[in-house]
Amino acid sequence: MKRWKLSRKTSQRLDAGHVWVYRGEVDEELTAETLDTALLVDERGRLLGSALVDGASPVPVRLYSRREQALDAEFLASRLKAALDWRDRIALDGSTGYRLVFSEADGLPGLTIDRFGRGLALQCNVRNYGEYLGAMVTQIQDRFESSGGIDCVVRELSGERSLLLGDEEKAKSIYCLNGLKFEADLLNGPKTGAFLDQRENYLAAAEWVKRLRIEGRALDLYSSSGGFALHLARVLDKVDAVDSSKPAVTRIEENARRNSLDNVRAIESDVKQFLRGLGQARRQYECVISDPPAFAKQARQREEATRAYYDLNLRALSAVAPAGLFVSCSCSRAVDERDLLNVIREAAQESRKTLTLIEKRSQALDHREVISIPETSYLKCLIFSVSPSQ
Questions:
Q1: Residue 124 appears among annotated catalytic residues
Q2: pLDDT per residue over 161-191, tens digit each?
Q3: Residue 129: CB partners within 8 Å, gap ≥ 6?
Q4: Is residue 190 part of a domain?
Q5: If you average pLDDT over every residue of the chain, what do you get?
Q6: Which carries the bigger pLDDT value, residue 383 or residue 302?
Q7: Is residue 192 one of the residues assigned to a domain?
Q8: Out of 124, 287, 329, 331, which one is annotated catalytic?
Q9: Are residue 55 and residue 80 in the same domain, yes or no?
Q10: Contact by Cβ (8 Å): 360, 382
């Protein structure tokens, strides 16, 4: 492999555990056609590790080993086995929807693989895995053969999804989360087919409703597939699930029917307009969930996103009844937990509510967080008990 020399600053970042090298940090010319592997060394020639190189990727150079290591089928099989073994070791409570491979966190940078029952969704942010994907899919199929196997595989590359195995009918895959059945549309659904990172937070919200003896109605904002809504429907009288997407509303309705839950109402509406209407009507819910899409995907959007989170949390808090439960989430990497807490603190003051923070949560364990790679930590889920200001 070629040897690429890095600056002291970049080398120090990799020595600290990070794995990304950005465009402009290497002297080599990177074009959209560049596809290779390289050995990275510091200014003294000391080996930093082996890296994938894809000039078409937003992050063109990604370390995959701290040693001189060829990217081959045997190496990838060992990394994939370790990732699958980790999921076997954590408590998944019979769920068949979870993340099998989380990119850099599992030592397979640029590759994400989600399982949805008998379906797989592969998201490739680099092209280096192309010739090995077939063998990796076979390895996963062998792992799950005793539980029904895998009969559909969808790959996403550069924002385009395509079938590697199965057909369009099988691409609508049924999977279980915490004893509830959901459908993921691997070809046309959100993200890789559905959002799996909230799996443990769904249970936590329902558990706090029971522990605090909350009764009545829940409101799930930006409901998507109805994850929070369906879990809360098992412990509360009625749940309103709001989403601006008509396909999402259809998914929520179908998932509710799939689980024989007749106390879920799916509402197609812009969330801001819906909350504005609640305020005018002075309607409130005993439990409110705010789980919006990322308001900031880049650091430069942080200020604008912070304002958006403030406005949303202010309106959502106004919809929480006295002695209610409020769950506020953010998947924006540029907005950290402290930012979100500050926003909610200001919103609580404005809405004249007293908030008791009862739990701080993050993404589910299958979405591994490696502390030396900040990008692997992104989801914030804050759970509050709400009461009027005294």
A1: no
A2: 999 999 999 999 999 999 999 999 999 888 7
A3: 76, 108, 110, 111, 136
A4: no
A5: 93
A6: 383
A7: no
A8: 331
A9: no
A10: yes
Task: Classify residue 137: in a domain, yes or no.
Answer: yes
Same domain, 206 and 290: yes
Q: Is 252 exposed, middle or buried (0-12, 13-18, 19+ CB in 10 A)?
A: buried
140 in the same domain as 245: no
Tens digits of per-residue pLDDT, 276-307?
999 899 999 999 999 998 886 666 677 888 89
Which value, in Å, is the radius of gyration of the alpha carbons in the chain? 22
| CA 254 – CA 266 distance, rounded (Å) | 10
Q: Which percentage of the chain shows pLDDT scores above 70?
A: 98
Sheet holding 152-157, edge to edge: 97-102, 111-116, 119-124, 152-157, 160-165
CATH number at residue 264: 3.40.50.150
Q: Which domain holds residue 279?
A: 199-388
Amino acid at 357: L
Q: Which residue has the tokens 């979405």?
A: 367
Overall number of domains in the chain: 3
Per-residue confidence (pLDDT) for residue 57, from 0 to 100 = 93
The answer to whether residues 107 and 227 belong to one domain is no
* pTM for the predicted model, two decimal places: 0.93
CA atoms of 196 and 289, how far apart (whole Å): 16
Together in a domain, 155 and 18: no
| 261 Cβ contact partners less than 8 Å away, ≥ 6 residues apart | 230, 233, 234
Which position has the token pair 């409020």?
A: 326
Q: Do 239 and 381 reside in the same domain of the chain?
A: yes
Same domain, 255 and 154: no
What average pLDDT does the segment 83-99 reach? Answer: 90
Alpha helices in the chain (DSSP H): 8-15, 73-89, 133-143, 199-211, 227-233, 246-258, 271-281, 302-318, 337-351
Over residues 269-276, mean pLDDT: 96
Cα 68-110-132 angle, rounded to 5 deg:
70
Per-residue pLDDT tens over the stretch 150-164: 999 999 988 899 999
